[in-house]
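Case study 2.
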Amino acid sequence: MFGMTNALEKGLDACALRNQVIADNIANADTPGFKASRVKFEEYVKSAIEEGGGLALKKTREKHMDIGTPGIEGVRPQVVADTGTTMRMDGNNVDVEYEMNELAKNNIEYYALLQKMNSEFIRLRTAITEGR
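Prediction:
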């Protein structure tokens, strides 16, 4: 249960960071030499899961053995500059239409994760109140 909410929290944090990065890209669309940035997160999560990590098991005591790989608990979103492309003669590579599309996709993803987080909390509340 709590592993799922932690994973959802990481996803929400990545979406919030991506929103900031996209807004920064759009704000600098007319800045000569500005390079757009991207947030890498999903591919890191996928890689951690493919390595057998998934949600990591927690040790309750320091001397307990480590079980499996760290999982997605250690995955953090990273901001990476897109230096490989240029859209204009002044060196700027921001495509405002692309950024607006990415912003819309990111908002949809954010609200989907928020809905899932809300349903997890409803489940938790139900489990607590039914156990009276």
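Residues 2-41+76-130 form one domain.
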